[in-house]
Design brief:
4 copies of one chain form a homotetramer. Chain A is α+β, with helices and mostly antiparallel strands and about 130 residues long. Chain A has helices at about 20-40, 45-50, 120-130, and strands spanning about 1-5, 50-55, 55-65, 70-80, 85-95, 95-105, 110. The interface of C and D includes residues 15, 29, 59, 61 and 66 of C.
Chain lengths: ~130, ~130, ~130, ~130
């Protein structure tokens, strides 16, 4: 799996001192961006250079424990590969306890909205290194 | 149900001219805030004055059609009342077609994290006006 | 001048119950977007249809009084027209007292970064209606 | 001075492929948060534990060159110490060229809005290590 540490910032927090939900979603989304860069298929190059994208069709998250400013939250991303889609599965922990978890379902789509296509082999291979066996 | 119109802004949009997902989540979250203000239980008063909150425990959204800058998106919120929780159900449409939909599951919790409690009667009554029969 | 009301949301606020600065900047920026739509030159149409843009080259804001969730903040925007640029001057008030004020300096630029140009006459005329005499 | 690298993300970018201004402001603000953590006076501890804060009273930024998704932007922060205030001066470069620069003026204020006070000696000492001679 891929892993990064998100430090919750003062500007992410609410009157109770815990992170606002939209700021958690920002951190999750940033993690997908960092992962795609890590495997050398950054979102910002996919469409221009490869003619396809991975638009989000569903997101589902559960929030189990709040996180506070200064918390170092380990966010794991595991790609679960389909034929024409990929599910990014997330687990975020603080002090080894799950803070939030969930997934983003993404389809492999031709540029310009002409429908889905199979995941290209090189992208599949790159993602497979981070997938569960 | 409760309804508001969200105008997608230039600053919400990505290199394809469509709204970034985190900005859609911002708009959904803002809708819950506007609804609570509409029924006279604004989020910013709940805890201080009433001693309870409605923390989010789950969010689940599907994205069916992208939205673009200038689009006027009608976001409907229907509260689905439980005993100790409430589900905010959302349907967002542009030109009468569903753009995204989903729900936020919220529990009624004592302030300070001491566990859940029943929805207060006056809050239940206020929300019921916007619920499906 | 142009005027809109910004309601500070719970999700904009910090541990002291006041709006985070970046969220205030979001509100200011949204105001420029709403103004351009009001005068029928929305940002999202400028470049595609007219071949020029109004990129921001400077922003300068002062924060005099904090704003809280639920505050209805009146944000005024007055365009101050130059030859090849326009300054959007802002004053934001809550309960008739200035909360924050400042300006955005924008240049009129050819699409594609080929340098500045004079403000087109129709845009100048549309903005002039909201300018100070 | 203090320095961090900000990677511009796909979700920060606009229809021209460049970062939206509010997302640049987010990155600047995050830098101040990282700096305060670095010198062991994180924003989230100041008020609770020390009884004072550093509210922002002015921000002034110039945008010289746009930045794109994937750009690694080096943001430098140099504190310029006053008696009862501190100015955080920023210069952000990409490929050694200035992309944006400016400052945040912050006052040292007693908690609860009871006016300004001198910067505490230990905070002054900690910041001075990053100040210009």
């Amino acid at each position: 799996m891929y892993e990064r540490v998100w430090t919750v910032r003062f500007s992410d927090t609410d009157p109770f001192g815990i992170a606002h939900y939209p700021r958690i979603v920002d951190a999750i989304h940033e993690t997908s961006d960092m992962f795609m860069q890590e495997i050398d298929f950054p979102f910002w190059e996919l469409s221009q250079q490869r003619g396809f994208g991975l638009p989000l069709v569903e997101m589902n998250f559960e929030f189990e424990r709040p996180v506070e400013a200064g918390d170092e939250v380990t966010i794991e991303l595991t790609p679960n590969l389909g034929n024409r889609s990929v599910r990014f599965e997330y687990v975020a922990r603080h002090n080894s306890k799950v803070a939030f978890s969930g997934h983003e379902q993404r389809v492999c789509a031709h540029r310009g909205g002409e429908g889905s296509r199979e995941l290209p082999d090189d992208l599949r291979t790159a993602m497979a290194e981070y997938a569960d066996d």
